[in-house]
Amino acid sequence: MSKVRVIPCSGIGKVMGLLSRETALEVTGRLCPDLAETACLAHLVAGDAEGSEKVAGHKCISIDGCTALCAEKSIEAAGGIIIAKYNVMDAMREHRGKKPGDGSNLTEDGWIIVDDFAAKIASKVFELQENIRCRSNNNCCSSKGEF
To answer: Is residue 9 situated within a structural domain?
Structure first.
């Protein structure tokens, strides 16, 4: 089974970009390492053949940091299939008044936001992969991912 690609915003030097990247790393590295992997947005933006190959025709989740939607647009341009779209600004709304840090370092509040946001995205990855497994086995899966 092919892993879902989780592709975050770059947003270098901006806290929204850092939140996006840390969330993607949490999903792909700790919560769903067997079900999801990440790809480098810079390779997609630059039109790098190897980076585009990793995304083209594959199911992808975008994690954008702002309304520019660079991750979403770059996945689409590379031929990826976007199955879920997330934006750090929505995660921030759920943590109104919290100070996540800056473009280089997250505060304790920032890590709480990452953990909550990553759990939400990991649940989606698990749901998507379970649905694929159920269809390929022609049976119903009974387990649900809890993070």
So the answer is: yes
